[in-house]
Every structure is written in C-alpha cells, then in structure tokens.
C-alpha cells in the first residue's frame, strides 16, 4: 500500500503566467496533493493524468474575454474530481450554459450561508467566512439549477459554491487559498473527496 499523496493538475488562468499569483494555490494544496501546474494556453487535451483538477481565479473578465474552448471541453468531458475557484467557478458554470453578470468589485472577507450540505463544505456548520475578490457573478436561474446544486450564498453573491448534479465538479466563488486558516478545511475536504472517488 502506498502512502503517496494524490496528484492534482493546477490550471493557471491569469492573463500571464505568474509564480507569485500561483503561489497561494500551491501553498494551499501541497499539504494534501502532489501539484503539477499548467498554464491555460498550453491546455490542449481533456485527458488528464492527475487524480484531480483545480482551476484558478483570474483577472480576465468573462464578459470581455472569450473562455478557451479547451477548458470548456474539459469541464464537460472530464470524469476527474474538479474544483473551479472564482473565475474557474464562473467558467465551470458557463460551460453548462449558465449566465454571468458583472457588478461592482467585491474585495472583502464575506460571511456565507450553507444552503445544502456537501462533502466540500464538511465541518463548516451553517455559516463560514472566506475572502472574496471578483466583479462577475454566476446567475442563479433555471439553467444553472438544471445542472448544479447551489451549496452556499452570501449577502453579496447568491452563488458562492456549486456542485454538479451528476459529475464530480465543484465551484467556489470565494478564494479559499487566500482565506488563511479559514480556507484550509476546503483543501482537506477536496482531498477527502478525491481519495473517496479513487477507491470506487
């Protein structure tokens, strides 16, 4: 029996590759995963060798910049556990037909309410806190709800966390990797999800 960590492909989606911006994600994931990163422009195939996938946030605005088709295909085709963060959360929802809107920028620690219990939110209780930094929001409408359960909301954003109804796909509008100790349980919960799915 091996005690090695599961592997994760970290897809960097910043306008330019940036080790500085990538560092919080690596720091957040490395206690639980062996991390390999790839820049989004180099993403060509939907076949991923790693055990799981994490898609980062980005300064790109979806309403102004086309989302690479390779990423949208990955969202629709992968069977691997996947977590999209901020921009990754928004583009995950977009891949399944959801709408995105723009609002004034939010940059704060936000209190979130759990709407539906889920492994990703394990241990969070009824409310939790996380760091927010975004303009764009996923719209809670029938198209989104056809494909995703909304797991959490906040006063500033009604779609803070989602889970696909049939696939192992999660999205978080907030930034667990930039939430300090408040965000560490989410990496652990995602690790547990990956471990459980790998045993099936």
CATH topology: Rossmann fold
CATH class: Alpha Beta
**CATH superfamily (homologous) name:** Class I glutamine amidotransferase (GATase) domain
Indicate the CATH architecture: 3-Layer(aba) Sandwich
Low-confidence stretches: none
SSE string, helix = H, strand = E? EHEEHEHEEHEEEH
**Total tally of structural domains:** 1
**Order of the strands making up the biggest sheet:** 2-1-3-4-9-8-7-5-6
- Roughly what fraction of the amino acids lie in strands? 25-35%
Distance linking N and C termini = 16 Å
Taking the sheet with the most strands, its summary is: 9 strands, mixed
Q: What gross morphology would you assign?
A: globular
Structural class: alpha/beta
Radius of gyration: 15 Å
Number of distinct beta strands: 9
Quickly count the helices: 5
Helix content: 25-40%
Rounded average pLDDT: 94
Keywords:
alpha/beta; Rossmann fold; 9-stranded mixed sheet; 25% helix; globular
Summarize the structure.
The protein is of the alpha/beta class. The chain has one domain (7-198): Class I glutamine amidotransferase (GATase) domain (Rossmann fold), CATH 3.40.50. It is built from five helices and nine strands; from the N terminus they run βαββαβαββαβββα.
Q: Care to describe what's here?
A:
This protein has about 200 residues and is an alpha/beta fold. It has a single domain, classed as Rossmann fold (3-Layer(aba) Sandwich). The protein has 5 helices and 9 strands. It has a 9-stranded mixed sheet, sandwiched between helices. Strand 8 and strand 9 form a beta hairpin. Helix 2 packs across helix 3. The longest helix is centred in the last third of the chain and has 15 residues. The radius of gyration is 15 Å and the shape is globular. The mean pLDDT is about 95.
